[in-house]
Amino acid sequence: MNTVSDLGARRTQVAAALQQVLPARAVLSAQEDTRPYECDGLAAYRQLPLIVVLPDSEEQVIAVLKVCRELNVPLVPRGAGTGLSGGAMPVADGVVLSTARLNRIVRMDAFSRTAVVQPGVRNLAISEAAAQHGLYYAPDPSSQIACTIGGNVAENSGGVHCLKYGLTVHNVLRVRMITIDGEVVELGSDALDAPGLDLLSVFIGSEGMLGIVTEVTVKLVPKPATARVIMASFDEVVKGCHAVAALIAAGIIPAGLEMMDQTSSRMVEPFVKAGYDTDAAAILLCEADGTVEEVEEEIARMTAVLNTAGAIAIAVSQSETERLKFWSGRKNAFPAAGRISPDYYCMDGTIPRKRLGEVLAGIAAMETKYGLRCANVFHAGDGNLHPLILFNANIPDEFHRAEAFGAEILALCVEVGGTITGEHGVGIEKIDSMCVQFKPAELEVFFSVKRSFDPPGLLNPDKAIPTLNRCAEFGKMRVSGGALPFSNLPRF
Amino acid sequence: MTVYDDFAARIRTTQTPLRIRGGGTKDWYGQALHGDVLDTRVNSGIVSYEPTELVITARCGTPLAEIESLLAQHHQMLAFEPPRYAASTIGGVVASALSGPRRASAGAVRDFVLGAVLMDGRGEILRFGGQVMKNVAGYDVSRLLAGSLGTLGLILEVSLKVLPVPLREASLRFEMSEIDALRRLNEWAGQPLPISASCWHQGVLSLRLSGADAAVVAAQRRLGGQVLDDGEAAAFWASLRDQTHAYFAGGSLWRMSVPSHASAIVLHGEQLIEWGGAQRWLKLAEDGVDRASAIRRSAAAAGGHATLFRGGDKSVGVFHPLAPAVAAIHKRLKQSFDPNGIFNPGRMYAN
């Protein structure tokens, strides 16, 4: 299946089979139609798919899966394509299933505080529809205006409020999905648990490799009456970190807790004029939400802790406008990076917070080593670090250096007891770094989980879990006792 | 030889199934017990505890009481409030995934599992997840272990997220019919009220409020009801959490897990309702196959499922039957983790 003419013949064959079961407009096979699907938010990796399908009902999804199963065609699901790890990157001889037309809010029920939605519904659209009942859907990834709930389920998305309100896995009650055999499976339930193994928790975050989602029941929670944010400045990053630890030790779980280093604040301040102290080594944003009295009480406690921890300046938002202004710098870190640098590469490691100082020192050393600048924004409450590596793809070798820089940051995250991805997923981007974090026997368990749901291995193949051969080539294989277990097993 | 070497050697050479057992406080839970006991209590101890990172890591045989007393020194807690049976170990807490009164507001055991070290059926030591809140590298196998009843492998170590103990708590009591209680609980849950536990039993609804001083005081003023004395309130919620409340004695006990908004379920027997309406206990003086299928039908019709929690005739199946496609996935997962079928065979579903 390597030559162009082989692919052409295959395209004709698969398109014909899909057109039997889908309306003509739901099957795209001309290059000009499939081109928009060649990459997701990780635009450095591109691949034209064989065909794109846009089903608009569960029956059509089932029909697509049956065709793929029968003809042995790989299938890559895709939501809004905002993912940052290449999880929705097509495969050359495979079909992309877009959920764009599965975009109905099936049911919105204030009394049970749940919404039943199709996978292509946008994250923010759920909260907008729930607002009339004083409710909202808590996980708020920064792409929430565009990203879909199906993609959130695939990636176990978080957001700036997840320390207090949890990730996707904590806010989804039920997923209805179709297996590669075209069977309908319900995971979880409208109750708080379901019988048997907790398959829902392994399905969430599985990057579209275990089944195709057709419906999701999400929990809705009461919208807090008000929120206020503290902006605190520190003359040393480590002091900012200690302040975060002191807040937690005082029994406070802030609704949002974000830190930016000086490179980041200097990058965003001219752009958004959020009022950040660009002389400070670190800016900490610390939010309280709830009733007016509750927020007042919590802001007072937070302020006291931050002062004791050595904040050199503290400002508390006095209005909703000011709260949004304080946040605007953090929320615009990525666009600001795009403004000062032709290209940037966003990393997503998570570390135990107490190791932040040494990780930032390590990153500073890498800036010299790779000759590239790096700005750091940090979900300080949960240890999720987003280094933004600035580079220019037009300069030969810079992208390659940025990638190597990123991989070294992730290796450092693992070394200090963290993980290579907190919320963006592995996809295709970090697949080699998986070899650093997991040993062969653990990777083998992931493959067996995959096989348990998808025996033929057709769903989003070659993502997230590296084959042992790939790890060997990458040269980072964690070999125990010099022996490669299961070295001759077939891999997806 | 380390403890882990001993476990691995036993797993690799055993000719009989193994029954993974900590304090043995939940031997009554689940389907039949098979195999020779593999006692996890030799693998005990807190590996690390970082109050400011909100994470504790402990070996499976560590007594729950030891963990809770350390957390209490730092004003932190296991927010899912697992039942404190005398000799419970943390491995059993995770494997059984029983959560207490705070479950509806704080989350279940699985929601707090951050990572685990597992020994699979080949005696291989495997690490999944970690000690950080956010981690999407690889499938979330560690959460899958919560409630797996030891059927996938031996949990060697587990990392759990912990939370601060609320600054203030207050408990209220209302005389209320079951129908009214269910309606009010669902209405209140849709409002920004700090309700952290609820119980309806014999015409009385009890509520616990937890949170910042201002939040609890304001909610108390709004909701009214009779305020419970602090000592009495603590004893009451503990008796539900640990199932020492008189309701839990005698008879056979079913647990119906249903959507909180499901209307009152009419069945013979005495009910006690927790979790804002989402957990409904049913106590029967006598049971039988007919009774079991009626209970399962009612729970399923309400959108949930029913477990024969304690006592009764287990031949009806302790856990709700699985849909065939889900059962097939279970079977393949079991085969992957435990190819020789040695761990707790038949504890969840008859093989």
Short description:
The complex is a heterodimer of chains A (492) and B (351). Chain A contains 18 helices and 19 strands. Chain A has 492 residues and is of the alpha+beta class.
Structure description:
The complex is a heterodimer of chains A (492) and B (351). By secondary structure, chain A is α+β, with helices and mostly antiparallel strands. Helices cover 37% and strands 19% of the residues of chain A. In chain A, the strands form four sheets. In chain A, strands 12, 13, 14, 15, 16, 17, 18 and 19 form an eight-stranded antiparallel beta sheet that branches. A five-stranded antiparallel beta sheet of chain A has the order 5-6-10-8-9. In chain A, strands 1-2-4-3 form a four-stranded mixed beta sheet. In chain A, helix 1 (4-21) runs antiparallel to helix 3 and helix 9 packs across helix 11 (292-308). Chain A is globular. Chain A starts with a helix and ends in an 18-residue tail after the last helix. Chain B has eleven helices and 17 strands. In chain B, strands 13-10-12-11-15-16-14-17 form an eight-stranded antiparallel beta sheet, with helices on both faces. Chain B is globular. The relative contact order of chain B is 0.14. At the A-B interface, strand 9, helix 8, helix 9, helix 11 and helix 17 of A face strand 7, helix 6, strand 9, helix 7 and helix 8 of B.
> What profile does the largest beta sheet of chain A have?
8 strands, antiparallel
Number of DSSP strand runs of chain A = 19
Q: Tell me the number of helical segments of chain B per DSSP (H or I, 4 or more residues long).
A: 11
Helix content of chain B: 25-40%
C-alpha end-to-end distance of chain A: 16 Å
Let me know the average pLDDT of chain B: 96
Distance between the termini of chain B: 34 Å
Main β-sheet of chain B: number of strands, strand sense, barrel status? 8 strands, antiparallel
Query: What percent of residues of chain B are in strands?
Result: 25-35%
Q: Whole-number radius of gyration of chain B?
A: 21 Å
What is the molecular shape of chain B?
Answer: globular
Write down the oligomeric state: heterodimer
> How much of the residues of chain A is beta strand, in percent?
15-25%
Main interface: chain pair and counts: A-B, 98 and 86 residues
Structural class of chain B: alpha+beta
Walk across the major sheet of chain B and give the strand order: 13-10-12-11-15-16-14-17
Class per helix and strand makeup of chain A: alpha+beta
- State the helicity of chain A in percent bands: 25-40%
Question: Shape of chain A from CA axes?
Answer: globular
Total helices of chain A: the number is: 18
